[in-house]
Each structure stands twice: as C-alpha cells, then as structure tokens.
Design goal:
Order of helices and strands: HHEHE
Strand order of the largest sheet: 1-2
Oligomer: single chain
Shape: elongated
Helix content: 55-70%
Radius of gyration: 37 Å
Structural class: mainly alpha
Largest sheet: 2 strands, antiparallel
Number of strands: 2
Strand content: 5-15%
Number of helices: 3
Distance between the termini: 113 Å
Number of domains: 2
C-alpha cells in the first residue's frame, strides 16, 4: 500500500514537472512568435523614417540652393537686406583661448595674443 502511494506520488510529480516544462516551452515560443511578428512592423517603420529623412534633406538642400536664395532676395520681405560694402566690414582680432590654454606654461605672460582669431562683423547704417 505504501509502495502504491509512493509510485502514485512520483507519477503526479513527473506529470506536474512535465506540465511545467511544456508550459514554459510554450511561453517561450509565444514570446518568440510575438517578436517575429513585431520585427517586420519595426522594419517598415524604420524604412518610412529613413525615407522621410531623405525627403527632408532634399527639401533642405532645395531651400538652401543659391537659385532659391536669389529668388527669396527678390521678394519684398527681403529687399531691405543688402550685401555690406568693404568699408562697412570690421575685422576684430582676439587671442584664441584654446591655444593659450593648450600651451605648457599658462601664466600671465603666455596669455598674450600669439594666436589670433579673426572675427568679421558687418555693420551698416541705413
């Protein structure tokens, strides 16, 4: 009698373990199937985003083209803008702080403008 209970218990334990393993396997297969179905949708979305990027870069290049800029210059909204004359251009020279800091000895004597940056400003009077 004890032997039958022991065998019955072992059979139920084996069936329970088999059920748990098969449930775990089916859960993994379900997750993989969901991912396999999600990948094509994701690839389609990536492709549409890349196409939109190409379209927008083309629009940017088209907008910044010299032909379009000249057409915009002819519009009444931009007629007040003009190219500055050479007497209206001021060039400022200043020490390059990165070059000064990159030198080995950063002292007050090394902060003299041995490396200069040119900053061009266009000033005009209406």
């Amino acid at each position: 009698m004890k032997q039958k209970k022991k065998v019955t218990l072992q059979i139920f334990l084996c069936l329970g373990l088999l059920g748990f393993c098969s449930f775990s396997y089916l859960e993994q297969q379900s997750t993989l199937t969901k991912l396999r179905l999600y990948i094509p949708r994701l690839m389609k979305e990536i492709k549409s985003i890349q196409e939109e990027n190409v379209r927008l870069s083309y629009r940017i290049q088209e907008f910044e083209s010299p032909k379009h800029l000249l057409e915009m210059a002819a519009l009444p909204a931009f007629r007040h803008l003009k190219y500055p004359l050479s007497k209206e251009v001021i060039v400022l020279q200043a020490a390059d702080p990165l070059e000064c800091l990159a030198s080995e000895d950063v002292t007050s004597s090394s902060l003299k403008p041995n490396h200069t940056l040119n900053h061009t400003l266009a000033v005009g009077v209406k």
